Amino acid sequence: MTPAARTQAAIELLDAIVAAARDGGPAADTLIARYFAQRRYAGSKDRRAVRTLVYDAIRSLGERPASGRAAMIALAKYRPDLAETFDGSAHGPAPIDAKEPAALSGVAPAWLVDALQRSGLDRAQLAALLDRAPLDIRINTLMGTRDDARDLFEGAEPIDGTAAGLRLPADTSVERSPAFVGGLIEVQDAGSQMVTTVAQAAPGMTLIDLCAGAGGKTLSLAALMGNEGRIVATDTDRARLQRLQPRADRAGVTIVETRLLDPGEEVDALANLRGEADVVLIDAPCSGTGTWRRNPEARWRLTSPRLDRLVATQARLLDLGATLVKPGGSITYIVCSLLDAEGCAQVDAFLVRHPGWSAEVPEVGTAHGAGARLTPASDGTDGFFVARLRAA
Fold first, then answer.
1. In which domain, by residue range, is 82 found?
2. pLDDT tens digits for 109-149?
């Protein structure tokens, strides 16, 4: 592909990504994979170059652009080499008209920047939300040690604040490695590893992972429990939950049972577990504002009404979790969001609704309200809010 053809490919992809963000369609990574699956002529260098252009444009724009062309024109303003590729060639984009509108640069849509600032994030914290994320892995301590895994990857470094985390060079091939295939390691952000420890999971416990998804935190909890006790992993998403058991088998985890829940019917489906859990972990559905480094187009998907729906879901899950905890047990509440509406305000409201419960300051990140916060700027991790709530 010529440089102009690469720019045109990026414009086409951005058109698809903008439409998907507006209409609730597939993620950018999925759209990029589909695009190149239909264009086998594009070599690995072409695919990498186009992907880089697409994500450079996404990261540079706060508001959702009107089109892929407007997005690339905005990027070209700061990159003369890119502007030159708008040459009108056979497979390239038409030349840029001086009066042609460009998309607006920024961190996020204005309403969202305001909400994040009111949640205590300054300009440096906001900018770091769009840095490129590192590649972190968690060592499965049921199968080996951090030193065992470190010896297998060139440039691997222990991650401060984790007992089993390693940070690898960004281009490391992980999922084809013997360590991954054999269950010694899992790809997991350091922040995700840190907030999971707030649950204080220990051997012999009964633990309910209420929003288990594909099981990243479930497997981390199983390792912390030494594969002794019981974990009930639940979710309403069948496709994601079905991915957990193969991962558990690979990791040598035998204490996990999965339970698919029907939305709105969770109380009845979990009735036999009322008052049984030592710990309920709620990794709640959220806005994902802490994960923009990995999914920068998510800024274009979030709306104020959608945020309101997420906050309502989080409150409902917390109330459900409270019914499952035994006296003296705890809820670990986690969101990969840095908005106070989903974090400390959510916990404050729970404590009002549930007299007798108390909040314990977690041992990770920086204290924030009744919980703690991790941010890319302060901790080098994805952004999280976590709280440990203790039943009377």
1. 3-106
2. 999 999 999 999 999 999 999 999 999 999 999 999 999 99
Quickly list DSSP for 79-129: -HHHHTT-S--TTSPPPPPTT---PPBSSS-HHHHHHHHHTT--HHHHHHT
How many residues belong to the chain? 392
Q: What is the pLDDT of residues 245-261, one digit of tens each?
A: 999 999 999 999 999 99
The token duo for 232 is 């009930």
Q: Please tell me the total count of domains within the chain.
A: 3
At residue 194, what are phi and psi to the nearest 5 degrees? -65, -45
Encoding tokens for residue 313? 């879901």
Cα 101 vs. chain centroid, distance in angstroms? 33
| Residues 144, 166: Cα–Cα separation, whole Å | 13
Q: Is residue 143 part of a domain?
A: yes
Phi first, then psi, for residue 348 (nearest 5°) are -60, -45
211, 286, 336, 344: the active-site residue: 336
CA distances from 345 to 170, 179, 221 (A): 36, 41, 26
CA pair distance 11, 91, nearest whole angstrom: 12
- What does the alpha-carbon distance between residue 370 and residue 359 come to, in Å, rounded to a whole number? 6
Q: Which residues pair with 332 in a beta bridge?
A: 281, 388
Catalytic site residue 336?
Answer: yes
DSSP secondary structure, 148-192, as one string: HHHTTSTT-EEPTT-SSEEEE-TT---TTSHHHHTTSEEE--HHH
* β-strands 358-360, 384-390 pairing: antiparallel
pTM for this prediction: 0.93
Q: Compute the average pLDDT of residues 355-363.
A: 96
Residues 284 and 366 placed together within one structural domain of the fold: yes
Between CA 136 and CA 179 the distance in angstroms is 14
Q: Are residues 146 and 228 in the same domain?
A: no
Q: Are strands 157-158 and 165-168 parallel, antiparallel or unpaired?
A: antiparallel
Q: Does one domain contain both 141 and 277?
A: no
Q: How many CA atoms lie less than 13 Å away from 380 in the CB half-sphere?
A: 11
